[in-house]
Amino acid sequence: MRLSRVLTLSALALGSLCLTAPLAAQSSMFGVNGLGLPGRPLTPSTLATGGSFGLFDGESDLNPAALADLKSVAAGLVVANAWRDWDVPAGTASLRGSRYPLFSIAGPVPRTRLGVGVSAGTYADRDFSLASSDTIQLRGAPVTTHDTLTALGGLSEVRLAIGFASSRRTSLGAAVYWITGSSRMSAHRVFADSTIAPSRQSAELSYQGVGMALGLTHRLSDQLRLAVLVRSDGEAAVRRDGSHVYDVDLPYTFSVGAQARPSRRMTIGVAGSFRTWSGANSDMLEQGGVGAYNTLELAAGAEVARSLGHPSTLPLRFGVRYAELPFPIVAGQRPRELGLSAGTGGRFAQDRAGIDVSAEYAWRSEGSPYKERALTIAFGLSIRPYGPGKR
Q1: Sites in the chain below the pLDDT cut of 50
Q2: Buried (b) or exposed (e) across 318-349, using 16+ Cβ within 10 A?
Q3: What number of other Cβ atoms are within 10 A of residue 133's Cβ?
Q4: What is the gyration radius of the CA atoms in the chain, in angstroms?
Q5: Where along the chain do its domains lie?
Q6: According to the model, what pLDDT value does residue 371 have?
Q7: Which CATH architecture is the domain 3-383 placed in?
Q8: By CB distance 3.0 to 4.6 Å, which of 45, 52, 161, 211 could disulfide with 233?
Q9: Largest CA distance in the chain
Q10: What is the spatial distance between Cα 200 and Cα 187, in angstroms, rounded to a whole number?
């Protein structure tokens, strides 16, 4: 396969080829193909519960209806650091990377039952550097080649959302998403024979799309709340160096969640999401990729307050999460992950600022040949300039 063809296909078919000899990477091996590894633009307090509190968290980039429950304006920034170990047929690799998966500003509108929010988060992460070696026939003689494929970038989403408390028990919400981003691809080939000049080609892939979401939260009782989210991301136009090359269908998302308080100190949550990534399957196959699958994600978690008088001071949060991943390394395989998480946080400056931290250890695999272990630690800083309770 010529390097120009590799770049034209956006490296969709290079995942399994290059992973035969990994050299270095920043992202997951399961983010090489397709659009990358789906992002999780959630606050660390929600990440610590496995994501199970996400549909009720107005500061996360998830359910717009949760904005109606915010009591004060909050601005937040999340930084995530990840350490990964790969096991592939050619050997192992240890990798490290840093991300900024979420920035948000949200809060209530004074003297109304509205909450509004603007946020920017990670939609899909496609940041890697992979290498492989091979022997080809050149002028009738075998020549060893060393190929490196590098991608920097991914997809982001910018959200404008509004939530409305239609009653004391029920809140509704709507959001519009601008899905955008780019991936700067570079392919470099070096020959073992120094008389043959190395070759390098590069291209920039850009993505543009628009999505929308509708959400609801409902309080059945003081101890039990329910949430529902429906989201459509439409399709994204893909351009290479400014020229339109193809369109790719983005998924519908259907999410449900429940949150209960069995005691004054404990809150528990469960959530499930189904995403129709298989809509992109034909688009990926037409471009030479390995396809895409629908995904199911399930999460459960809890938060335990150490002090009833100061519930936001060092609470204990923990959770578990199971997820299917949309873009396989090898056609016909189904990648999956299992994660365990924990975290805590605190407020200071008269509750006008806070720090939250979460840690998740995840096991990802696609059959027996491809395995990955990842530790992700997320730090979140939030500022509430007017303090709690101000509307």
Answers
A1: 1-25, 390-391
A2: bbbbebbbbbbbeeebebbbebebbbbbebee
A3: 14
A4: 22
A5: 3-383
A6: 92
A7: Beta Barrel (2.40)
A8: 211
A9: 80
A10: 6
